[in-house]
Amino acid sequence: MRVVSAVETFPGSVHEAETLWYDTARWPSWVDGLDRVTGVEPRWPQLGATVTWQSGPAGRGRVVERVVAYEPLSGQTVEVQDDSIRGRQSVEFAPADEAVELTLTLEYEIKQRSPLTPLVDLLFIRRAFRTSLDATLRRFGLELEAARRADVG
Asked: 88 CB contacts (<8 Å, ≥6 apart)?
């Protein structure tokens, strides 16, 4: 499996970040490529629960995430699958002074392979996933800041 990750630190607590992260109604505001959430099991974000979402027209299509590990105030790992990849995505929350550090990691494998797949992955796919993780965390930070301002105001 290939691995990409992104790390960002934001003002706020682990609790604030975790609460926002698991609020699937807000995902369209910050999850890169997500157009709409189409299904959420009631026990989300706990072990075994799934979320299904749809990307925009040029995106990944239908994406299914199933929780395979969850520890409150620490993080979560989901098995993720769409038409072209399968893998695991993890989010970790860690306190950092008066801030919270988020680490977002995607381990993936490409479903339909050819002799050129390793080169295409190295030159294009891995970079696109890294850019997507970075964009997701950057937008998440903006949402977290807005949520914190709304709680204060």
From this structure: 1, 68, 77, 78, 79, 80, 106, 107, 108
Q: Answer for the pair 24, 17: CB distance below 8 angstroms, yes or no.
A: no
- Give the pLDDT band of residue 17 (cuts 50, 70, 90): very high
Tokens of 146: 């807005």
> What is the chain's length?
153
> In angstroms, what CA-CA distances link 83 with 59, 104, 111?
11, 21, 8
Nearest to 133 by CA among 144, 123, 125: 125
Per-residue pLDDT reduced to its tens digit, 74-116? 999 999 999 888 999 999 999 999 999 999 999 999 888 788 7
Q: Can you list the domains of the chain with their CATH numbers?
A: 2-152 (3.30.530.20)
